[in-house]
Write a structure and sequence with these properties.
Helices cover 20% and strands 39% of the residues. By secondary structure, it is an alpha+beta fold.
Length: 163
């Protein structure tokens, strides 16, 4: 496995963990509309299929923010920071920087991942993201499922959070 492949898997794992999950989110202090936490799971329907899950904390806004992925024990697995000046993935001492969040996720995951759209989805709002379709029908229960139909391979992102 190349360094680029490991980076892609790490980013997909971080995003998957942050966006979807099957466990109940831990109780937390009240949050504002620009801060979300819970669990996420990402399944990429490749050959062989790849699955990732993690805890997540999403802060900020689509233009500037941070997504942090954690293990079930609370260890930080990775964090992604973005602003108008660029985006950076941090995994321990390793840093990967790109001019934009879309470029960072595309370089590491093969296609841009809808990190910016998460803010709208978590607020129960649709977000137009090329290739992705979000099911918000269980938003009031703290669950969102987003599916990527294009480009292949398809993928599914599940989020569990405090509504």
């Amino acid at each position: 496995m190349t360094k680029a492949d490991r980076g892609r898997l790490a980013l997909l794992g971080v995003v998957a963990i942050a966006l979807a999950g099957c466990a109940t989110p831990r109780p937390e202090a009240p949050r504002d509309a620009s801060s979300w936490s819970g669990r996420l799971a990402l399944t990429v329907h490749s050959e062989p299929p790849q699955s990732y899950s993690a805890g997540f904390e999403l802060r900020g806004a689509p233009a500037e923010g941070e997504l942090q992925l954690t293990s079930p024990l609370g260890t930080v697995l990775a964090s992604v920071h973005w602003s108008p000046q660029g985006a950076e993935l941090r995994q321990g001492a390793q840093r990967t920087r790109r001019p934009s969040l879309d470029e960072l996720t595309a370089d590491l995951g093969g296609t841009p991942l809808p990190v910016a759209a998460l803010f709208g989805w978590l607020q129960g709002q649709t977000a137009d993201v090329s290739g992705w379709n979000a099911d918000l029908s269980h938003h009031s229960e703290g669950r969102v499922v987003a599916r990527r139909l294009q480009p292949l391979p398809t993928a599914e992102l599940r989020l569990v959070f405090q509504p």
